[in-house]
Each structure stands twice: as structure tokens, then as C-alpha cells.
Amino acid sequence: MPPDAQLLTLRACAQRLGVHYMTVYRYVRTGILPAVKEGSEWRVAAADLESFRSGPAAPLAPGDGKWSQRLKARMMAGDERGSWQVAEAAMASGLLPEKVYLDVLAPALHSIGDGWADGSVTVAEEHRASVVADRLIGRLGSRFATRGRPRGRIVLGTPPGEHHRLPGAMVADILRAGGYEVLDLGVDVPVDSFVEAVAQAAPVAVGISVGCTDLLPAVAEVTAALRHATAAPILVGGPAVSDAAHAASLGADAYAADGAEAVLRLGELAG
Ligand code: B12
């Protein structure tokens, strides 16, 4: 939103739209109408209200990219409740929880990352949005549970120095939905501890997530050390890894672009 934008209260918006205050509040909290917080009050840019008025929000189809834009706006506002409402509305439209991760939350985070890289998103805004994403994943997590005997255990973690936790958490949930039991070690895992956890867990596969290119040597260190502890295949993924050949150069057996592809790769590896 431009710094000199004319901002309206929700009551003023309700008056201009001829609807109840609570209706406007709902538009805001579900991401249909962009808004920012001033103190404890929501404010809407007059220009946003005008475009809303000229093209009232039609119900979104499950695959519509606008879900992601709506979620990004709520995350950028630090609005945990609103973010949850967008996710719920997306699921109510027919989107599976896995698709909420892959087609709504991940693109929103990627777009925030692009904004951080080009300077339009501040570090504080990125951190605040990341915390909202973290809470959202926590709430969505139970939707990925499956019944029955697991297809096997997978240990997931990041190399030492890596602090991107959200990608691994999403991959873990998608693997769970695929029938695997996942032991998620989280981020910044010391090599010795990674090896120890894998030796104890006897997994059918190990997954390593890496976001920072300067940590690729650390990934190679982890894969080399893991070879002494397990014969299980090692899967590497994350934005710092480009493809299967790149993953192989780091000592991994396979690469997957996301959790859904990881489930397919694991099925192939199991024969
Ligand atoms: C949120 C975020 C943060 C948060 C992390 C919060 C958290 N709790 O996770 C914070 C603020 C801490 C952070 C810090 C930093 N970040 Co950051 N961050 C991001 C951001 C915006 C989103 C990451 C995310 O969650 N993406 C959503 C997930 C779902 O997408 P994904 O990572 O691509 O993962 C998918 C696939 O890659 C795959 N996948 C991922 N892992 C695995 C693992 C396996 C086994 C498999 C099979 C698949 C798989 O599946 C996922 C699902 O689709 C990205 C932007 C981006 N483009 O992603 C930058 C980004 C990753 N960060 C970046 C940078 C540079 C940093 C910092 C160095 C910034 C700094 N100067 O301090 C630090 C590094 C900290 C560290 N040492 O790790 C760069 C990395 C560039 C690079 N390749 O080296 C990015 C790409 C931003 C950018 N555009 O430049 N960051």
C-alpha cells in the first residue's frame, strides 16, 4: 500500500458499500478486502475499496491464484486469525490441505521472499509473516494424519546453519499424508546428532532440506556422515538444490521438488 494512500475505517467502508460493519470486517478477515492495522483498528485504502466496489469478489475456484494473494495479504498484516480463515475458505472451496501448502501457502511465502530480495518487504514484515505461516502449519498439521500402519519411518532435518524450518514442516506433513511416519529433527541439526537420530530410528529414507546455497557443502557433509549409519536412501530438496544431478553431486540418492513429488520418489525407491 503506498504510504500516502487515503485510509478509511471499516465503519466508513460499511457506509460506502451499504452493508453492515460486520460484513466489511468479514471481507477483511477473509482476505477479500485488503486492509492494514493502525493501532488496534483495521484501515482500508480508498483505492482498494473502489476496486472492490467495481468488481465484487466472486467465489474463487479451488485452483485460483488469488487464494495465495489473499493469504499473503493476511500474513503480511500479521493476521493469524485472518490467515486461518483464508485457509479454511480455500479448503471449503474444495482445496485439499496438501494443496493449501503447495498452491496457496508456498507461493505466498515465495512472493514474500521475492519482495524481501527486491527491498519492497522489510525484514520485520518477513519475520512476522513467517511466524503466522508457522502457526498456520501448526493448525493444519492434524489434517495430514492418516490411519493404518505406516509405510515406514522417515527422518527429516536440515544441515547445520540452516534456519528455514517452514519448508521441512510442510514436506513432513505431506509425507505423513502419504502414509509415512515422520521424525522431524527441525533446523540447524549438528552432523553427529543427525547421524545418531538416523541410527536410532532405522528409517526407510532420510530427507534433507536446504534453503541457503552457501550451506550446500554442509549438506554434502551430512550425506557423507549418514552413509556410515544407514543404507536407507537419502532425499535432498529445497530451493538451494536445482535437480536430481545437483542432489547426486551432494551425495544424495534422489531429489524431489516438493513433498508430493517426494512421496512418488519414495514409492519408486521402495520398488
Ligand atoms: C521465510 C523465510 C525465512 C525465515 C524462515 C522462517 C522459518 N521458520 O522457516 C527467516 C526470516 C528466518 C529467513 C532467514 C534467512 N533467509 Co530466508 N526465506 C524465507 C522465504 C521467504 C520463505 C521460505 C519458505 O518457507 N518457503 C516456502 C517453502 C514451502 O518453499 P521451499 O522452501 O521452496 O520448499 C519447497 C521445495 O523446495 C521443497 N522442499 C523443501 N525442502 C525439502 C526437503 C526435501 C527432502 C524435499 C524432498 C523437498 C523439499 O518442498 C517445499 C514445498 O513445496 C524464502 C523465499 C523463498 N523463495 O522460499 C527466503 C529464502 C529461502 N531466504 C533466503 C535468505 C538469503 C535468508 C537469510 C540468509 C537472510 C539473512 N541475510 O539473514 C537467512 C538465512 C538463515 C539461515 N541461516 O538459514 C534466500 C535464500 C537464497 C539462497 N538460495 O541462498 C531466500 C530464497 C529469499 C530470496 N529470495 O533470496 N528466511
Descriptors for this entry?
3-stranded antiparallel beta sheet; alpha/beta; binds cobalamin; 5-stranded parallel beta sheet; 271 residues; 52% helix; Rossmann fold; Multidrug-efflux Transporter Regulator, Chain: A, Domain 2; Methyltransferase, Methionine Synthase (B12-binding Domains), Chain A, domain 1; 8 strands
| Structural class estimated from helices and strands | alpha/beta
Give the low-confidence spans: none
What does the overall shape look like? elongated
Number of helices: 12
Q: For the report, how would you describe the main beta sheet?
A: 5 strands, parallel
Strand/helix succession? EHHEEHHHHHEHEHEHEHEH
CATH architecture of the largest domain: 3-Layer(aba) Sandwich
Structure description:
- 52% of the residues lie in helices and 11% in strands.
- With 271 residues, it is an alpha/beta fold.
- The protein has three domains: 58 residues, Multidrug-efflux Transporter Regulator, Chain: A, Domain 2 (Orthogonal Bundle); 86 residues, Methionine synthase domain (Methyltransferase, Methionine Synthase (B12-binding Domains), Chain A, domain 1); 125 residues, 3-Layer(aba) Sandwich (Rossmann fold), CATH 3.40.50.280.
- A five-stranded parallel β-sheet has the order 5-4-6-7-8, sandwiched between helices. It has a three-stranded antiparallel β-sheet with strand order 1-3-2.
- Helix 4 runs antiparallel to helix 5 and helix 8 crosses helix 12.
- The longest helix has 22 residues.
- The radius of gyration is 21 Å and the shape is elongated.
- The N and C termini lie far apart (52 Å).
- Bound molecules: cobalamin.
- Cobalamin (B12) binds next to helix 6, helix 7, helix 8, strand 6 and strand 7.
